[in-house]
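Entries read chain and fold; for instance:
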Amino acid sequence: MSNTPALDRWKAQLSAWAIPDEIRKQAPAFPWRLDPELFRPLPGTGEGSLATRRAREALADGAVVLDVGCGGGAASLALADRAGSVIGADESAEMLELYTAEATSRDLEVITVPGRWPDSQASSELRADVVVCHHVAYNVAALDEFARALDRATKPGGRVVMELTLHHPQTVNAPLWQHFWNIERPTGPSAEDAHAALIEAGINATFEIGEAGQLRRESPSETRAAGAARMLCLGPDRVQEVDAQIRSLPARSTERAVIWWDTATQSA
């Protein structure tokens, strides 16, 4: 791996999101644990989702879909009417349990791959017709290596489709950090930064912006507030206060960035 200016900027901006030690030490629970209920997918074919449309374009009936950072399966299970089998990769056992249940309920053959991508031993052996990866990129510093592993897991002539928010997803929570801890949070990186890093890494990816669609079930506000409190290193006794602050935030954008490429046109 050789760093490039774009990748260096990406890494530097991500590292700025580290929670200050003096706050992290006060956390009653691991801040970045995600509640599976926030990731339970909706039934249906992902109408209105640009990322789903781009994946569907490259998907023949009975194809294999790999979902990296699958969560509950919103990205891949929206393709259940076309897929023959699905593979879910995630480092959370709870997420993989949910993914298996949701895929099985849609009469899909399902394989799960535990571990962080692409560190898992099984990741080097996987081959899928389409690889989808939603809302994982902002957790990955070595984005070039991560994307190349997605590419290697895709059959020749297949497609990789990544979806991510236009800016780091925690930027919308900056007012919460200001309110509870009186600290400023970063403003980047952005999806355009991710695309620039991939282009410099030799990945001939297309960048588009479109609607997210509704792929997940709407979670109760108290569930979202509990997750936000944990992320803020606050205890359960602060959940109601967090919920009140969340309600005062501006509505989140419904637009998403989609970065995709076909393996047949992948540059060396």
Observations:
- The chain is about 35% helix and 20% strand.
- Residues 93-105 form the longest helix (13 residues).
- The beta strands are 63-68, 83-90, 109-114, 128-134, 154-164, 206-211, 255-262.
- The mean pLDDT is 91.
